[in-house]
Amino acid sequence: MIIFGLNSIKEALKNKQNIEKVYIDFNRAKKEKYKEIINFLENLNIPYQKTKKSYIDKLTKTTKNQGICAIVASDNINIVDGLSLLNSLIKNNSYALALDGITEPQNLGLIIRSLVAFGGEGIFLEKRNSPPINEIVVKTSSGAIFHTKIAKVDSFLDLIEKIKEENINIYALETGGKDIRQEKIKLPAIVFIGSEGKGIRREILEKLENILTIPMTGKIPSLNVACATSILCWEIFKNF
Question: For residues 228 and 11, what is the distance between their CA atoms, to the nearest angstrom?
């Protein structure tokens, strides 16, 4: 859900609404009223981004937004803490995906759709390196987002250490690894997936030992991340 306007944002902050991210017009961010909101956001550790007014207009579908809008999670979306999702993985002997640098809402929605279709437990996102959970995600997931768990964590590096402590199997979907068709993914498991352009960040990939790769004919350089994730989820599902 998207809300906009100074008073709406202020009230949402006061009432501790589950705000995912706030967008502020570059040209208004220096004004006192907007500085006040920015300070509030920083104190609450809520991500925000200074951007063009035209982008805010596109998000809100109106020009009458006072140059500010916020993405507020729907009450029907199951936002959980990282430990809760880890416990669910162990209890249900299932799998989850950790999305590194995937910032397009459309891709997130499609990934969630595949995850739910093939029995996955949930998604891990980094708070400051993830897309907003909005109506685009809901639409592209075809409602699958209401049937999964989403955990936003401060750091994937910290998450990896916790995963290892819990003896959960950990993998990465990246080039240069083992043929995914030949590897049986052991459950419970978490698979890290990076963006199409950059892949998984080096500092994260260095912590991961089990690298899986989707083989291709070489006629195209790569797959869309949502398409690749769908193949991954199917390969895991075959092991259930």
Answer: 41
Listing DSSP states for 10-30 in one string gives: HHHHHTT--EEEEEEEGGGTT
Total count of residues recorded for the chain: 240
Q: Class for domain 2-72, per CATH?
A: alpha beta
Rounded to 10 degrees, what is the CA torsion of 80, 98, 87, 17? -10
pLDDT tens, 186-216? 999 999 999 877 899 999 999 998 999 999 8
Q: What is the spatial distance between Cα 205 and Cα 201, in angstroms, rounded to a whole number? A: 6
In Å, what is the CA distance from 79 to each residue of 47, 99, 123, 153? 16, 15, 10, 11
Q: Which tokens hold the place of 180?
A: 């995914």
Q: Which of 86, 236, 79 is nearest to 158 (CA)?
A: 86
Domain with CATH 3.30.1330.30 in the chain: 2-72
pTM of the model: 0.74
Q: In what order do the strands lie in the sheet with 95-100?
A: 78-80, 149-153, 122-126, 95-100, 189-194, 169-179, 210-213
CA distance 169 to 185: 8
DSSP secondary structure string for all residues of 219-231: SSS---HHHHHHH
Class of domain 78-237: alpha beta
